[in-house]
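REQUEST ID: PR-0412
SUBMITTED BY: lab tech R.K.
PRIORITY: routine
TASK: structure prediction, single protein chain
INPUT:
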Amino acid sequence: MRTIDQLWVKYSNGRFGFSVQKRIYQSLGETREYNDKIWVAFSDRVGWRVNSKWLYYNELKFNTKSAAEGHIPSWSWGSWMAVGRSVYSLVYRVETCRV
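STATUS: complete
OUTPUT:
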């Protein structure tokens, strides 16, 4: 996981990767348990929501110049709220791996 993150960070000039998403998440008031408000704020910050609407996978930006910091890697499967719970689990795995 650390190697994948390092590659994301290196080739995006520090704009994308698990560690970038972790930093953004922590800046929003990191909690050990899932929190809807933090998840929505995180999704707004990384561009997974626009004008209070969740984007479909095909609406996400994969152009590294126009995508918001932390926009990718993205986690779109099922509902975005279900994704939120999975991302919270991933954040702690990232921490365990010292990413």
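NOTES: The CA atoms of residues 2 and 98 lie 7 Å apart.
REVIEWED BY: pending
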